[in-house]
Amino acid sequence: MKNSNVQLSETGKEQKLIEVRDDLFRKVGRNLINYQKIEQLLKKLILSSRISGPISQLEEILKKKSEEVKVQSMGVLAGQFIENTYQKPKESLIEQAKIKEIHLSTSIYFDVGDDVLERRKADLKKLTDERNNLAHHLLPRLDLNSIESCLAMSRELDAQREEQTKEIENLVSLIKKIGNSLKEHADFMNSEDGYKLFELRLLQQSSVITMLLELSVTQSRSDGWTVLDKSTRYLRDNLADDLAKIKKYEGCKTMRSLILTSEVFDIIEEQTKKGGTRLLYRAKPDLEDIYH
């Protein structure tokens, strides 16, 4: 009879181990799925936060980017997410102006302090390390024949889940904010002011304005100003058709009018030695710095 009680006790321990172990396996699967959710959210944010390319190639660019992101590891995704979401993109009007067809460039990022940026980097590094440990290094730290070991790991997984949940909520919130920003952007571009801005960007990206920018550097005087008549003669000799078309399209009868309409240049009048006047122009300071 005593032996029977001992046998029952051993059976109870074995059943308890099975229950604890099954619960542990469930939590491992749950947390691995949560990490995959985080990866999917990071991919979505990477794909939606920055879009850039010529209109004719945009679909191909997005497809290629999606294929690249699809196979990236969580560590790479975290780094790219940080760069896209919390750092200002290195783009400029000058770079856009060198493209000869309509170019779409949309970038959404959150301007945060260095402390927030470093904290987010640390958070994502910790998540990445814990994900790798769970996927690749769990068994060396676990004794599947020990109830105590399984319970300790189960508690660790519960704490891990809390961190996962917070990160998922944070990423979902960012996606909603970006979605709202994109909707506001789309509404603006469909408005009259948006149309005017689009027209202005087309002008700024034109071959004529691009050439004027280059001439404002290569043909400038020591004081940084360039004689407009000299640049105009160059345009008539090399881009006569483009110049005529853009002046007609913009309704600009004079080069002065075209210069001012582009909003790329500053312009002044200067007296000549013969008592007349001439126009001088130069790229606005912020654009000039980028160009150099």
Give the topology, please.
Layout: H1 2-49, E1 50-54, H2 58-70, H3 74-86, H4 93-97, E2 103-107, H5 114-136, H6 147-189, H7 192-204, H8 207-218, E3 226-227, H9 228-238, H10 240-250, H11 255-262, E4 265-271, E5 277-283, H12 285-291
Antiparallel strand pairs: 1-2, 3-5, 4-5
Features:
2 domains; mainly alpha; disordered N terminus; two-stranded antiparallel ribbon; 12 helices; 9% strand; Nucleotidyltransferase, domain 5; three-stranded antiparallel sheet; 292 residues
Structure description:
With 292 residues, the chain is mainly α. It folds into two domains: 2-192, no CATH class; 206-291, Nucleotidyltransferase, domain 5 (2-Layer Sandwich), CATH 3.30.420. Helix content is 71%, strand content 9%. The protein is built from twelve helices and five strands. It has a three-stranded antiparallel beta sheet. Strands 1-2 form a two-stranded antiparallel sheet. A hairpin with a 5-residue loop joins strand 4 and strand 5. Helix 1 (2-49) crosses helix 3 and helix 3 (74-86) runs antiparallel to helix 5 (114-136). The longest helix is centred in the first third of the chain and has 48 residues, at 2-49. The termini are far apart. Mean pLDDT is 87; it is low at 1-6.
The largest sheet is: 3 strands, antiparallel
Report the strand count. Answer: 5
Shape: rod-shaped
* End-to-end C-alpha gap: 95 Å
Radius of gyration: 31 Å
Total of helices: 12
Low-confidence stretches: 1-6
Structural class: mainly alpha
% residues in beta strands: 5-15%
Write the H/E string, N to C: HEHHHEHHHHEHHHEEH
Strand order of the largest sheet: 3-5-4
